[in-house]
Write a structure and sequence with these properties.
This protein is mostly beta strands. Helix content is about 5%, strand content about 65%. Strands 1, 2, 3, 4, 5, 6, 7, 8 and 9 form a 9-stranded antiparallel β-sheet that branches. A hairpin with a 3-residue loop joins strand 8 (about 170-185) and strand 9 (about 190-195). The longest helix has 5 residues, at about 160-165. It is elongated.
Length: about 200
């Protein structure tokens, strides 16, 4: 066996759905995942202890989502939308090794997002069908690392090396997309898509 190679993962999922009038549905879901594992480094192969423990990680990811769907008896409408929030946190501990002092780092990322799409189906004949899938996506990331690692007094930067690996910052990204699928008698399928 390899020393310090173990990990533990636990997940919990809760869903609550509500069917609304006129072919509508709401669903609230919550997923939390916890992962704990150890960082290790290979030592001199001539030593009895081949592996050395460097530190440990505790990762917690929480996902909260609200889904809405509207699927009436209309081939032009199959609408779905989602609002979601994701909280990802990694608490990392690095042990003292030689002249390098141990330190703690927290990598924290919060994501807020929105998705919406619709599928319209056009029957050209009994055997050929065109489906158009189109919609939009948007998400916003907020990254906030924190560390008690010492920064040299003569350093040109104010953040520690550990914090600089995943720098502090915000990011927003949105896109519009469409995809066309042509199906003929379940043996021929052609598709084309575009995302901007």
């Amino acid at each position: 066996p390899v020393d310090y190679s173990g990990s533990v993962m636990r997940s919990r999922l809760i869903k609550l759905g509500l069917n609304l009038p006129h072919d509508q549905r709401l669903q609230l879901s919550y997923l939390v995942t916890n992962v704990n594992y150890t960082d290790a480094n290979m030592m001199n192969v001539e030593k009895a202890d081949l592996w050395d423990k460097l530190g440990s990680n505790s990762v917690r990811a929480q996902n909260l989502a609200l889904d809405y769907s509207y699927t009436p008896d209309n081939p032009l409408i199959d609408f779905k939308a989602k609002l979601y929030y994701v909280d990802t946190r990694n608490d990392q501990t690095t042990l003292t090794r030689g002249s390098s002092k141990g330190y703690d780092v927290t990598y924290q990322t919060n994501t807020y997002g929105f998705q919406a799409q619709n599928i319209s189906t056009f029957a050209l004949s009994e055997l050929s069908v065109i489906k158009a899938n189109y919609g939009l996506e948007f998400f916003y990331d907020k990254v906030r690392p924190d560390s008690n690692q010492m920064v040299a007094a003569d350093s040109a930067v104010t953040a520690s090396a550990a914090e600089s690996i995943t720098p502090r910052g915000d990011r927003a990204m949105g896109s519009l997309f469409t995809r066309l699928d042509y199906d003929y008698d379940n043996w021929l399928n052609l598709n084309a898509g575009l995302r901007y």
